[in-house]
Design goal:
alpha+beta, five-stranded mixed β-sheet, two-stranded antiparallel ribbon, 7 helices, about 15% strand
Amino acid sequence: MGDDTQSITIEQVEQYLNENADFFINKPEALESLQLNESPDGTISLAQRQTQRLQVKMQKLHEQLNALIENAHSNTELQERVHTLCLRLMDASNIEELLTLLVVELKQEFDADEVALRLFYSGDEVITLPKLEGNLGQLHIDDASLKVFDKLISKQQPVCGRLTKAQKNVLFEEQAKQVESIACIPLGHEPCAGLLAIGSYDANRFHSDMGTVYLTFLGDVLMRLLRQYCHQPNGK
């Protein structure tokens, strides 16, 4: 007669135990034949092994919860800073004061190492920007260098985290290599009138988990304030 014995694979055993989680509770005698790894203190039980695994999972959940709380605090602080900044920008009496406030406040209150503002124009609509210490400039809306921002601009939403080397070169020029993380804010949409970029030398300063609702608000406020001066002769 042939051997009717069928071999059982590890995967089948694992599947059975997953489907019958109470197997060792109902069949405690089966534990006697199990061989468990030894620790310096001797053998450990399945209950101990399970407890260890649960402790690891609980630790990971605890870390995730702390991260969520930390992000919530960061977003609340961001809301307050943006609110204060917008109020100060609204008090500016001319474009020079507006842009000076923008750069100074972003560096002081948002811990920015670099600030860049790129305004877009079409035709001959170039305005005269004040000569300030800052990374301010204008680009024609059809400038080839702006192609790298097509996806970002089309989404009409701020982006926090890393940008490509080409994008950083357009925004920060000589300081591009130093900038590791960025909050990039489109100014308006249909069409987009420019980009405001807040750069940090710290790779973790701006990240994808940061709230962007308030950055969108900042971009909308700044665009409306700039519009007052951009549509006047020489920005006066």
